[in-house]
Automatic annotation (TrEMBL):
It comes from Mycena rosella. One of its GO terms (biological process) is attachment of GPI anchor to protein. This is GPI transamidase component PIG-T. Transmembrane segments: none annotated. One of its GO terms (cellular component) is GPI-anchor transamidase complex. InterPro entries: PIG-T.
Length: 342
């Protein structure tokens, strides 16, 4: 059954397509449906990439202006509170079918897990709700004596009754990692390593969404293979700079991934100096940066918005250390003033 609260929002704001994913690893009304802090998503966390997120289903031509909004919340923690409302949206809940194997104790102990809620429109412009759950588990970590790959050993449950559901899996020959280098609180370098293990050259779309607290130096963008700079690997660059205290920056580029090679992509960044009141309560922990996205292209050229792209590869979120004031000083002043007045 389609959630009533979600359907009301889609009708009220004429939403043609929506995707909500919650991922984690050893790495508003909609918020109520997923128990997530979606109410904190505002202008500073919102971008509108041009090519990275095309519409999954074409919509009929109308006079209305359709805008895509992309928002990330890298500091959100995924836990069992997110799974409970997810199970309530399934036809058989967790009582039968493959959904009965969704054991929260096993799922959230996995090396990586992710759940998704996708709202699409079919050819008849009818709303379709698609729910997904993915997990990556290490059988050796659960059983040191033997390598077990059965459902009961991985999920701790057995499927007793049938409830028709569909699933799909896909393999990818591309591996991508991203790190933030530099120990200072003023400058740093974002380093991206992409490995193409395939037997064919691949064109991939790279998307970087950076909040205004970290400013990208676009002129330092450099690509290399085995330590040798390559100017022919990065093209079709689209960069929308950030606005201080407001808009996040968007960097999109098409990368050429040679056959069986490792590509290094680097660019320098500048860390902003925040105002006193802009720091979060746990300022010493640092700020979370959204993950970069790599999308293999099925064509050699930039596709139109309604074309199908390859599977998206999301890299890990980053933690950036900004210059932080000594928040203990106001407390010390209050204590000294209190003693003097007393």
């Amino acid at each position: 059954m389609f959630p009533l609260a979600l359907g009301q929002i889609i009708r009220e704001y004429a939403v043609t397509e929506m995707h909500l994913t919650l991922n984690a690893g050893t790495g508003v009304t909609n918020a109520g449906l997923s128990c997530a802090s979606l109410g904190t998503l505002g202008e500073q966390r919102t971008t509108s990439p041009v090519f990275a997120f095309p519409r999954a289903v074409a919509i009929p031509s109308t006079d209305l202006h359709v805008t895509m909004r992309h928002m990330t919340l890298p500091s959100e923690h995924v836990c069992t509170e997110n799974l409970t409302p997810f199970l309530k949206l399934l036809p058989c809940k967790a009582s039968s079918g493959i959904s009965s194997s969704l054991n929260p104790y096993k799922l959230f102990d996995a090396d990586w897990h992710g759940m998704g809620l996708h709202v699409l429109r079919n050819s008849n412009q009818e709303l379709v709700l698609r729910l997904t759950f993915q997990t990556v588990s290490d059988p050796v970590r659960f059983s040191s004596s033997q390598l077990q790959r059965s459902f009961p050993s991985l999920f701790g449950r057995t499927i007793e009754a049938a409830c028709p559901l569909s699933s799909r899996s896909a393999s990818n020959s591309i591996i991508a990692k991203r790190i933030l280098r530099g120990s200072g609180q003023a400058l740093g370098t974002v380093s991206v390593v992409i490995v193409n293990n395939g037997a064919h050259e691949v064109e991939a779309l790279y998307l970087e969404t950076m909040p205004w607290i970290v400013q990208i130096y676009l002129h330092t963008l450099c690509a290399s293979v085995e330590g040798r700079p390559r100017d022919d690997l990065v093209h079709n660059i689209l960069y929308i700079p950030s606005i201080t205290h407001s808009r996040a920056a968007t960097l999109q580029a098409v990368l050429t991934l040679p056959v069986r090679s490792m590509i290094h992509l680097t660019f320098d960044v500048k860390k902003a100096f925040l105002r006193y009141g802009e720091h979060p309560p746990d300022a010493q922990r640092g700020w979370d940066l959204p993950p970069a996205v790599l999308i293999p292209l099925r064509n050699d050229a930039i596709p139109p918005p309604d074309s199908r792209l390859g599977n998206r590869i999301y890299m890990c979120t980053l933690l950036v250390d900004l210059a932080t004031p000594d928040f203990s000083m106001p407390y010390n002043v209050i204590m000294i003033s209190g003693v003097v007045i007393a």
